[in-house]
Amino acid sequence: MKKIVVFLFLAAIGMSGFAQQSDIPSVTIKTIKGQNFNTSDISNDGKPIILSFWALWCKPCQKELDAFNEHYETWQQETGVKIYAVSIDDSRSTSRVLPLVNGKGWEFEILMDVNGDFKRAMNVNMIPHTFLIDGNGKIVSQHTSYFDGAELELYEKVKKIAGIK
Fold this sequence. Notes:
21% strand; seven-stranded mixed sheet; disordered N terminus
């Protein structure tokens, strides 16, 4: 009996090392439709994730998200990548987010960080701030600012994570 207890204890300790440890903190924010969303639920079945912080007033942010959207369907087919765009607009301007998203035809997930809690938890000080997250929830790359073609550099990293050459 004693051996069984020791074995189970050691097995439990050993298995705890296999638990996935995510770099994404757990913060409750909103979906674009106003529903609560816990950021620990950001996942993609073991495939890469692009997490981009943006705001209505940030033109480079919108250019980056437009570029992502232009390639998104192809990127999903090739790598299975999922994009989450997190608006950091405050309560005075959030009513303008959905019309902008619809007008631009962005196909990815839009989340609303009205109080800036997720932004602070992710240590985002400047936007656009984009994170590349592997299938285990680990941040493997991040960048701030945007220039034409930056999305293609990011996609090369996405392909590497997805195991595509």
